[in-house]
Design brief:
The structure is a homotetramer.
Chain A (H helix, E strand, L loop, with lengths): L7 H16 L6 H8 L6 H4 L3 H26 L3 H17 L5 H7 L9 H24 L7 H18 L8 H12 L3
Helix pairs in contact in A: 1-2, 1-4, 1-6, 4-5, 4-6, 4-7, 5-7, 5-8, 5-9, 7-8
The structure holds a DNA duplex.
DNA sequence: TATGAATGAGCCTTCATTCAT
DNA sequence: GATGAATGAAGGCTCATTCAT
């Protein structure tokens, strides 16, 4: 299970991510993925045991790469405000940015993941949300946001997730501006 | 298209709503629906032209009955605060309450609706969101919430929608309490 | 089994004949017939035991009404030549004339008739072909056509039947002219 | 679209031709064809996009192989009389000979061909009929048959087509004898 | 690594037919 | 005579998956 970004497997995951996001997991066929990758459908099963394994790989990529990016952004942030802002910016760029299909699949195709595969993904998700929780707690301690940070985390993530349903990059707002505006709504005044 | 709550068609819509919510539209088969209704799969097509028509009927039920309930709640509310609260309470009860599967389907199965059927549903959804917009504008004028009400509407709805992913009614929080707490997060202080 | 031309049953047979001719027996549904007759599909089964009975009724109408017309035309014909001409004219008018769908169904849907129903139709067909045979024998005796009348009967009927595949009434030839021309090809010279 | 006679696709076409001829296209199921070929019904769709494509392939085989045979027979014919005879012999052998189901399907299942697929088949049919027209014109010029060759072509083809309805190879007449007798009826005397 | 061919279970849908009202 | 609702068998087709080459 190579994680090298250049490996054939990773390329397939990225192709699948885009298809799953655009048409849904159930409506995307193994043939679609293979065709987009320039191979026969049977060949995919050399790389993945079955279709669900592709889905899980997409989701794992989506959540873990976002976590990684958030980690880096937090490391570079100078103060609590910047750390808070990183939450919104990283999340939205991962969700709405170019070629960033994997996280969206993680959010909207959960029901297609078998019981067996969920725990592994939950671990990854919890790791990501733990970063959020930690920063929100810091921000609450600094008086930036309200104190009910557990619920705050969930509502904020819900707000951000939902943006895929209505945000259009052709509109007047850039992703960065949107991140700032949504953060502003969460700040105490 | 009888809207009488006792009609056979409406009964089928309710049964389908539950299946679509629990297993997803694509994973729910026409046979599943028929079996749950105690009939043969072919019989369904006496009531609906095809499977998608069932989905559309479920969605239309979900959004229009929620709109109706919100309308009634707003009519009975005495002041702006109560009207604001109605938004959260009605939405969450429609989403998380007993036997209330239809609205959730509306939110999470949009991609399975054909281009042809979307406009009709968009009209219903816009009607619902117009109520939200109106009450949020009133609340902003009264200083209860922040002024960016268009974005506020979208983020709040996102927050509420997401609750289906984590809220468990066996937990410590009732749906009403959750509504109050989420509202509290949105209030200026 | 009323044969009165005004009866409801006869009306249904005529409606079915047109549908069977235009779209084929297998492709025409009982619902199509019922709709064209302004009733529900279930109601048809008051008039006919099953779909095949409709087909048989259409075929019986087609062949027996043509036989009847041929009988009348032969009775009025003054000489052998006129009797010979009657064969071609009656057959083509029955096949290509307005509202004359039934005979064509008889020719092209034979395979859909069950073994059980065939003998009855064969009797009707033989009665019709017997008229042909008789007139052809007279014509051969008079030196109008060649002597191999049994084969002649079959090839001539084949020629006429095939006209439904290529004859267009919008073309330059009337049905009567076509009948004359085809007959001319069969005459000795 | 391999035309090699040994290819699996061609084998399936031949199997389908026989079924379509014996029971009709509409009454022959995809499962019937698969069973006759010793495979599962789903496997057929690896070779053909849909059922209609099988029908079109059968028809194309029927008409083009007959055209090919006629071309060869004409090339070997020494004089006009032999060329004229080739028309009848090739056509009847293709229609009534052993394992020759495809041409009959072409003649009797035309209504099941979609509008989209017709032009391609019409081209093939016209190519065949052009050979007929050419030879009939030569024969008329030589005084062998009557001058109205366009109508003659249609009536003769109709006569030959119809033979499938009544010819039984167990009878007293061989296919070759029948061809000669039908030709004799068309000759001037 | 990849392909070509096939599998087999399942899916949505159709449709002749039935029957209580 | 006719309807509305349903049946149930079957039909064309899809698709994840397998496997010899």
């Amino acid at each position: 299970m190579s994680l090298e970004p250049n490996s054939r497997r990773m390329e397939l995951v990225r192709i699948a991510a885009r298809l799953f996001r655009d048409h849904g997991y159930e409506r995307s066929t193994v043939r679609d993925i293979a065709t987009a990758a320039g191979m026969q459908s049977g060949s995919l099963f050399y790389h993945f045991r079955n279709k669900e394994e592709i889905l899980v790989a997409v989701m794992a990529l989506g959540i873990s790469s976002t976590t990684e990016q958030l980690g880096e952004a937090l490391a570079q942030a100078g103060n609590v405000e910047q750390r808070l802002a990183a939450l919104f910016h990283v999340h939205l760029h991962s969700l709405l940015g170019e070629n960033q299909a994997a996280l969206e699949v993680m959010l909207y195709e959960w029901r297609s993941v078998s019981e067996a595969a969920r725990p592994g993904l939950v671990v990854l998700r919890d790791r990501y949300e733990a970063l959020w929780q930690q920063v929100l707690d810091e921000a609450a301690a600094a008086g930036l946001v309200k104190a009910n940070t557990r619920l705050l985390r969930r509502t904020l993530l819900g707000s951000l997730h939902w943006s895929v349903q209505w945000y259009r990059k052709e509109g007047s707002l850039s992703v960065a501006e949107l991140a700032d505006e949504i953060m502003a709504l969460a700040l105490r005044d």
